[in-house]
């Protein structure tokens, strides 16, 4: 090995070692919390019996839900975001995005769960006050709100650096691939630790690079968006103007949903923003169309006049620039939902890899230090 390559390897090894030892606990925290959050809507009812899934005996009326929300919280006049329930389920969750009680936080909506069949309000709680939403904040912001977003974005980039440095250190010379991949049986403890670290790292490379990149883009869009725009300018989102038409009542939510289904029969409405009783804002719906990688946050957005049913604007992936498509994939890739249940399971499992890499990396560092001390003693 040339002196130049040896010096380069030494620098890469130092970077890899101190990223792992210095930030390993942080990477493990992000990995394990991320694993749990892959299925957080399914896990939340385990901690609150009030919102446990209930089968519906008949159709669920969303207007009944909207009225129940207004009656239970008459002081909240800014409108509600209603999440459409899983077919056959009775419970509906809605969010009031900017409650006065959490005005100082970046994101802390009021979550309200309603029985769609009876209109009974079953639970009202603020984001961060439940087990899974607290865990979400821990993963996404380290409980530091806006500052935490930026810190986690930086952690994503550092995780990528750690992963790439490990890959570079392992990369074999031409003709030595089989030797580099060999898992030695009946080896000493240090060799077994090395092989386990090596193989877990090779498995982790595609997952940790994707999770690190997507986490960085999602965590700090104020920096990521201008960088993406250098390569592909974003399309401008429409600015729908909804005239008040104050003499007309607000259309029932179900009528708007029927209109959306008629216009996009293959689509799936994931949530709909219902304007307040005196507001001139339109209905705003997120619709998942075939081929959309996102499930929780689909890419098609429709604005409908709340009193005349006029479609004011539509934004679909067909209008996206390359940069828009890139950002469209960030959340589905990060959560794994871009590849269905298999993708979510893969992302969930990959969250354990930083723990495995951290433990084996620390053990390997200990073995090397012990060997160095023994060598110095003998010398």
Features:
379 residues; 13 helices
Description of the molecule:
This protein has an eight-stranded antiparallel β-sheet, with helices on one face. It contains 13 helices and eight strands. It is α+β, with helices and mostly antiparallel strands and 379 residues long. Among the domains are: 3-38 and 138-232 and 343-378; 52-129, no CATH class. It has helices at 3-37, 40-43, 62-72, 131-141, 145-170, 177-181, 189-219, 221-231, 253-263, 322-328, 330-335, 340-350, 353-378, and strands at 80-83, 91-96, 110-115, 121-126, 268-274, 283-288, 300-304, 311-315. 51% of the residues lie in helices and 12% in strands. A hairpin with a 6-residue loop joins strand 7 and strand 8.
The helix fraction, in percent, is 40-55%
Write down how many β-strands occur, each being a DSSP E stretch of 2 or more residues. 8
Q: What value does the Rg take, in angstroms?
A: 25 Å
Amount of beta strand: 5-15%
Overall mean pLDDT score? 92
Low-confidence stretches: none
Number of helices: 13
**Class of secondary structure makeup:** alpha+beta
Give the biggest sheet: 8 strands, antiparallel
Q: Rough shape?
A: elongated
Strands of the widest sheet, in order across it, are: 4-3-2-1-5-6-7-8
Order of helices and strands: HHHEEEEHHHHHHEEEEHHHH
Distance between the termini: 25 Å
